[in-house]
């Protein structure tokens, strides 16, 4: 019986991934209990603010593990200038070893992909934020802090790194010199331009047009410093996961491709291979909706068709949406995915020849439709495009109507939101109620029919 440990393969795996051309961040491996692994997965990052919703997530993960429904093998965090990987000490050594090159695949994406945060030392930042929270809890009590955490979690889906843009100069428009007697409507004389410029200046100073409500509240409402800080901490966490979720398929696909490429070169004990095959198969279940499988097969296709240089280029520049959109126009990619899904070459079924093999043409039609109508649109991550206040460029029209409002018990003012896209009304109602309750303002939500 072998006495090899997964730790014996950390450095050999790193040497192999670098020989392959990968450039992972400096990666720290931490071995923890499965319960601790479930806890950090539920929290979102190793250091975050306590809230009942995170406790609920932990209980779900822990229960699923204890009853054998599912298990988390590893969790990798991008800490800005390095990565931290947590590996369960409850796993057998073979499966723990599989996670090592898988982690390096994630770490490479963190380092190279343009859609990642590329922030500084997030580890220290999150620890320091947690320390500040403990001081607030000691001084104010958890019951005082909880509503602010809950509000920030409700607004987390709306966070964005993009800021509202305003023109630096107001264009006079176009004046046709041949239309002397009939000045075009879109021409703006100096007085008109001055009025518009003043409106834009007011809009910029008040943050009108910002769709990140959490950022607007932090910046423009007269909050106490601890209130601003709680919202800021939670917003930073939401931004971290906003970056990560845009590249879920890229991340898991490339990490899976990496461990499949590296494991055969590690000279592992022969008795490990059956468990390794089982663990790989359990993660890469052949389903179009499985990001591990679809991402892995897409990476395999790029590698086999175009080579390693192209694979690294795609991994560097692609979000999930861009990746699938690009290859959804490639007939050879469909054929590759079909063969991987069916376990064999393309087999066309005639109407008079019964077969259990999925007809390729039917697969192509179904999959391309699903990509076009469901999968790719969902990856755009279209948010509830809510703008703060009455932006000068969003004038009152017959199509702009009040959708709902929520009044505070002791209101100190009001906030007007304008939804530009269809809304989840249950979510919108909950957000308005939390805003009015926590911020003590009346909140009105308008909608625009396009």
Q: Can you walk me through this structure?
A:
The protein is an alpha/beta fold. 54% of the residues lie in helices and 9% in strands. The chain has 17 helices and seven strands. The strands form two sheets. Strands 4-6-7-5 form a four-stranded mixed sheet. Helix 17 links the parallel strand 6 and strand 7 (442-448). Helix 8 packs antiparallel against helix 9. 32% of the residues are buried.
Give the SSE layout.
Blueprint: H1 10-20, E1 27-32, H2 34-43, H3 52-66, E2 74-78, E3 83-88, H4 93-112, H5 122-140, H6 142-155, H7 190-206, H8 213-220, H9 225-245, H10 248-262, H11 273-283, H12 291-306, H13 308-317, H14 320-327, H15 331-342, H16 360-379, E4 386-388, E5 400-406, E6 414-419, H17 425-439, E7 442-448
Parallel strand pairs: 1-3, 6-7
Antiparallel strand pairs: 2-3, 4-6, 5-7
Helix pairs in contact: 1-4, 2-3, 4-10, 5-6, 6-9, 6-17, 8-9, 10-12, 12-13, 12-15, 14-16
